[in-house]
Amino acid sequence: MIQIATHIEDPLERLEYIQEQTMLGKSRHNKLGAKTLSKMADAVPFGVANLIAGLYSKYNIKDLHRPPFNVTITNVPGPRGVLYLNGHKVVSIFTLTPVVDGFGLIISAFSYNGQVSITTTSDSKTMPDTDLFSRYIRESANELEGLLQDSQKGDSSTKSSKKQEKSKSTLMFRTLKKYLKANPKQVKAHKGVYYIEVGLGDKSEGWEIDLTKATAVIKKKKNLNPKLLVEIEDESLYALYKGKLLLDELEIQGRIKITGTAANKTKFLNLLTAFLER
Questions:
Q1: Is 229 helix (H, G, I), strand (E, B) or coil?
Q2: Which residue, of 79, 153, 200, 202, is most buried by count of CB atoms within 10 Å of its CB?
């Protein structure tokens, strides 16, 4: 279950918000886990579940309560190349989705051979203006595509100015990468994935330190569900790297926040200490 950001007017900001909400929703779903779902299925016998579903539909119980949601949106990546059926080229593909009790609208997106089809499915009583809604979807998609193309042009023209906006602590991550390359034992001793959110005024940038393989991988990356999260301002991290501030000082002053298990926190602090004392 995600928020679809209908409260945000700007299309690009809305798209970014939806992407974040989708990633958060998937992470929550993954936390539940397949084993938990299996246990839930075992707790309710199949025959009883069928009986309950039949009674739910027969007596229109859905009319007695407000459903948690009545819009389903699904996207499926399809074939990238051309398909043929009995010697004939498949020109395009669109989806058909079932309408069931409690669902007012189902929107499905499917890709094929460089094209994307968006299908809206409802029934005439619930949504008599489905054709109008579908046209709005197409117009909105075209608008978003145009804005994305314009933003990419703008990005290329301001590329040089963006280079000057790099954080000071970027130097620390480059040096850490060289240090770990020269000290593979440290990678093995501190195996794990650590995510550092560096504050830059009213925005931030994320750095992921992946020590799960023989060679360390350190790169900028957005991670909404890290196993270990370190939050620190750019100036503080740079001062720590330069030896102008001590790690203990930052912890006492609350200028660094570390969220995760005790084991992961200990490994990260030991890694950071070894790097700073190199």
A1: strand
A2: 200
Longest CA–CA separation in the chain, Å: 72
Residues 6+ apart with CB under 8 A from 260: 226, 227, 228, 229, 268
- Residue 93 resides in a domain: yes
As for how many domains the chain has, the answer is 2
Domain containing 225: what range?
Answer: 170-276
Examine residue 90 and state whether it is found in any structural domain, yes or no. yes
Residue 48, CA distances (Å) to 42, 67, 173, 220 in order:
11, 22, 57, 50
Q: What is the DSSP-derived secondary structure letter of residue 64?
A: G
Backbone angles phi, psi at 120, to 5 degrees: -110, 130
Enter the tokens of residue 148. 């994305």
**Alpha-carbon span 255 to 198, nearest angstrom:** 11
Q: What is the pLDDT of residues 128-179, one digit of tens each?
A: 999 999 999 888 888 888 888 887 776 665 554 444 456 888 989 999 999 9
Q: Which residues of 83-114 are buried (b: 16+ CB within 10 A; e: fewer)?
A: eeeeeeeeeeeebebeeeebbebbbbbbebee
CB 12 within 8 A of CB 151: yes
Strands 88-89 and 84-85: antiparallel
- What span, in angstroms and rounded, lies between the C-alpha atoms of 205 and 213? 24
